[in-house]
Structures are given as structure tokens and as C-alpha cells.
Amino acid sequence: MNRPKLIRREDLEGYAFIAPWLIGFLLLTAGPMLASVLISFTSWSMLSPPTWVGLKNYEVILSDDPLVPTSLWNTAYYVLFSVPLGLLLSLALAMLLDRRLRGMSVFRTLFFLPSITNMVAVSVLWIWIFNPEYGLINAALEKVGIVGPMWLQSETWSKPALVIMSLWGIGGTMIIFLAALQGIPDELYEAADLDGASSWRRFFHITLPMISPAMFFNLVIGIIGSFQVFTQAFVMTGSVQPGSEGGPNNSTLFFVLYLYKKAFQEFRMGYASALAWVLFLVILFFTIIQMKLSKRWVFYEAGESR
Amino acid sequence: MNQRAGLSRLKAIGRFVGWYGVLIALGIVFAIPFLWMFSVSLHDLAGVFADPFRWVPEELRWSNYVDAVSLLPFGRYLTNTVVITVCVLIGTVLSSSLVAYGFSRLRFRGRDKLFALCIATMMLPGQVTMIPLYIGFSKLGWVDTFLPLIVPAFFGSPFYIFLLRQFFLTIPREYDEAARLDGAGKLRIYWSIILPLSRPALATVALFAFLGTWNDFFNPLIYLNSPENATLTLGLNMMKSQVMGTGVTQWHLLMAASLLVMIPNIVLFFVAQKHFMKGIQVGGLKG
Asked: For residue A88, what pLDDT is reported?
């Protein structure tokens, strides 16, 4: 006669403990995701009720809005330069720090600090660093006889300026590389020395394969983060007039900045939601590609459970 | 023989010096923006635009810091930021640890699938949910209050849940068993066994939650409209717009304010350096 109970006491207890996340997932993630899809099929200013427009927002994004390709290109440019350069520099710094020498912790702190400081404060500082006349960079260039560019006020140099600034904030990436480097067993290098391997061979045949999981992590996180670049561009570019962010001539109008302007300056919620889904698909695409490619170059030690 | 030994010794010293040389050069490059900001913040306006720029001003104008924070009600912004941050810290630590306890210590149907789902949501870019959340919070009448910034923290955050679960798994189950034999329930074990043993991990979570909230710009920007509700980051941005919009920009004051906004992070780093490194490494290597 005893029917198995559908929900056991143990289950209930478990659900009770994870309830905060479960409720949060439904109300703050799953629900809004669904709503976002629906909103993206509407035209909605929040002042009047939304009107259903079907796929029109997506059609406009794909063929009718010149600022979409502009902002995608700006973002791609930023990702394409800031991520690889950041990885190279942070790996180089980590390798420099991976020595048991005096004073390493001082340098580690120095390289790491910019990455945890407030981005708005950092942005204000770098506006002044990039000042064409009085800024630190052009003053340094002048010393070696080069007339520096207009940086943030130049269509050509505004994106490189933001890439250069991003290199100041690679501390987190560096720490992850450093931990990976310190996890490489000394015996591997000793064996290589016995074989008379050159420094280059050691680097390419031991160091790189051993840190490839960290490289993969930094690459994925770096690309996702760079695709969402916003604060620097918002604070540093354009004149002080609201709405001018992303200048000059839209050269720093990154995708998320454009999305922000559509949503919170123009209150075009439907269109902005469609933009968000485009961003989601772009990021998903690159993440999946990297997952697939990673099988060829990311090396996991045997016995590590993954 | 002796000569060769001397030569290789010389080579080793050369390498050693070269190593430090490169490190010091790079260290200077990384430090210069901070030093420059500090120097500019102590000049008067004429000194800021002087050519050549003097790194050590003739007169150190510490009063710039007072002038900078009296330009806008920064005391108010500080209070707002502290209120929001403290609430977020409490919410994050409590909810994430509770959920992490459930995922690491209890057995229930669908647990592993739900945990995978929890981890998967980390990958979702915030922009996808941001607009419906904004609309939802505005329907609740929460726009221009601190609630949209605080309340979500009480529903756990996947990254911190993950981090704490990893840590809880390393705590031997014998402790739980002993407490259970003494008649402690699950909630009691969580509160008086697991949490006290997890102080380092909780500190790491609190640290990251602090930085995330203290440095946050985007959420205050969209949710806090009236100037008196602004946070420090928002206030600094308003000051930037105000100062840069009037004739000659008073860079010494902007630099002073920026430096003040940076200081809590820097101080916190020195106080809690170990937790920082641990957190980043656990997040990076096991994630």
C-alpha cells in the first residue's frame, strides 16, 4: 500500500537551501531572458504599451542601421588588439616574476594594482594622460622627437588609445599565469636541461603546454570581457554633452555602448533587446569556436579530473 | 679553468642584473600613471599646465583634496556607496554560502543538473537580462532607489556559489557527522560548523563582492537618476563632466578626486593581499 512519495524530505531540505539561487534564477535570469526575447519583437518606449513588430528589429540590425556594423567593427578591433597584446604582456610579466628573487612581491603588487582600481577613476586619469598637449604620453614622445597624435580626439587613434590603456589593467590575467607557471614541476625543466634543451625549446615544449589551461581560461574570459567594453568608452570619449559618447565620429562607439544609448538614452527597449541577443550570439559563437579549437592545443595533465 | 668559472659567474651576474633591469623598467611604466596623478593633484592650476612639468611642485597644495571633495557632495556619495556595499556584502555572503552548502553537503534529486545550470548562467552576458530587469524594477517603483542594486545580491551569485562549494568540499564530513550526533540540524551545521571553518573563503568572496560593488558604474548609472542618490563612481563621473565643461579644466582637482576614489581599493589590497591571490587563482585554475 505504501506508495513511494513523489517528493522526499531530503529533496525538500535541499531545495530549501538552494532556494535563494533557484528563486533568483527564475526571477532574475530565466524570466528576464524570456521577456527579453519577447521584447525584442516589439517596439517599446516604456511610455506607451509595446507594439508587436515581429522580426523588424532584427531586420533593421542586419541591413538598415549603419551604426551596427560600425559598433561591431569597433568592438572587433578592440578585442583583436587588446586580448592578444594583453595575453602576451601578462605572460611576459608572469615569467619575469616567476623567479625566487628578492623583491618579486613588490613588482607583483605594482603590476596587479591597476587592475583592481576603480575604472571611472582610471578613465579620468587616462583622459589626462592622453591629452595631446599636456599628457604624459605625448610629452614622452616629444622627448624623442615624435609629435604625438591627438589620441582620444582622433578617429584613427582613439581605439589604439583605449587598447593601450587596457594593457595597464592586465594584473588579474598575469596572476593566473603566474599561478600556472609556479605549478609546473621543477623536474620537467631539470629533465630538459639534462637533454641540453635550449631556452626556446623549454618554453615551447614545457612551459606553453603546461600553462595552456590558464591560457585558454584567460583567452575565453578576455574575449568575453572585451566584447562588453563600456565604462572607459562612456567616460573618456565624446564631449561632455550626454549622447556624444563614442566619439569622435563614432570611432569608439562599442557595441555595448551603442546598446546602452538605444536603451537608456533613446528608450528604444525593443531594439536594444534585439541588439543584446545579437551580442549574446556573437559571444556564444566565439566561445564555442574556442571550446572546439581548444581540444587541439590545450593540454590537461593525465589524472586531472575534468 | 679558473678563468672559465669566473666568466660564467660574470654571465650569471649579468643575467641577474638584466632581469632586475627589465623588471624595474616595467615597474616604472606601471607606476608612472599613479605617480603622475599624485603629482598633478598637488599642483595649482598654473603648475598643471606648466612647460616643462615639474614632478615635485614648489608648493604642495594638499588643500586641493578639500577643494575637490567640496565641489560636489562627495560625503553623500560616500555614504550611499557604503550603504549599498554593506548590504550587498551581507546578502552575497549569506545567500551564496547557503546555496553552496546545499550544493556541496545535501543530497537531493536534480542536484548536479541544477548546479550545472547555475554554473552555465555565469556565461550569460548581463546585457541580455538588463533591459527586462530595468523594466521590472521600474514597474515596482524601484528606479532611483538602492533596491535594484542591493536586492539581487540576496539571491546568490553563481561565481561565489562555485567558489564556496569548492571550499566546502574540502572540509571533512566527520565534523558534520559529529555535530549531527550531537543533535544539530542542517541549518545549525551550516551556521556553526561550516561557516566558521570557511572564513578564508568567505573573506575572498566578500572581497570580490566589495570590489564589484564599490567599482560598479553601469548599474548605478542606469538605476540612480537623482544626484543625491549617486555613488562615488557616478559622482566622480559627474564631477568630470562638470569640470571639463567649464573653460579651463581643473585637472588638479579631478586628479585629487580620482585618487581619493582609488584609495579604498589600494588599501584593501594591502590588507587582504593573500585572499586576493587565492581567489583569483581558484577562480582561474579550477574554473
From this structure: 97
Give me the residue from B121, B129, B281 closest to A175, CB to CB. B281
Which of B33, B118, B285 lies closest to A180 in CB terms? B285
Q: Where are the domains of chain B?
A: 2-65, 73-286
CB contact under 8 A, B124 and A96: no
Cβ contacts of A228 on chain B, cutoff 8 Å: 125-127
Min CA distance, A1 vs chain B (Å)? 24
**CA–CA distance, B54 with A283 (Å, rounded to integer):** 46
Domain boundaries, chain A: 9-52, 57-297
CATH architecture assignment, domain A57-297: Orthogonal Bundle (1.10)
Helix (H, G, I), strand (E, B) or coil at A42: strand
Distance set, CA A170 to CA A89, A116, A257, B148 (Å): 8, 10, 22, 30
Q: Please write down the HEC assignment for all residues of B161-207.
A: HHHHHHHHHCCCHHHHHHHHHCCCCHHHHHHHHHHHHCHHHHHHHHH
> Which of B158, B266, B285 is opposite residue A214, by nearest beta carbon?
B285
Would the CB atoms of A126 and B33 count as touching at under 8 Å?
A: yes
Are B37 and A125 inside 8 Å of each other by CB?
yes
Contact A175 B241 (CB under 8 A): no
Question: Could you tell me if B169 and A64 are in contact, meaning their C-beta atoms sit under 8 angstroms apart?
Answer: no
User: CA-based Rg of chain A, rounded to a whole angstrom?
Assistant: 25
Residues of A in contact with B33 (CB under 8 A): 114, 125-126, 129, 136, 168
Nearest CA to A81 among A212, A248, A226, A217? A226
**pLDDT band with cut points at 50, 70 and 90 for residue B2:** low
Per-residue pLDDT tens digits for B11-69: 888 888 888 899 999 999 999 999 999 999 999 888 888 877 888 888 899 999 999 99
Write out pLDDT tens, residues A194-248.
888 888 888 998 999 999 999 999 999 999 999 999 999 999 997 777 778 888 9
ipTM of this complex prediction, to 2 decimal places:
0.90
Residues paired with A51 in a beta bridge? A43
Substitution target in B49, B155, B250 with the highest count of A β-carbons within 10 Å is: B155
CATH, domain range B73-286: 1.10.3720.10
Three cell numbers written together for B270:
594591502
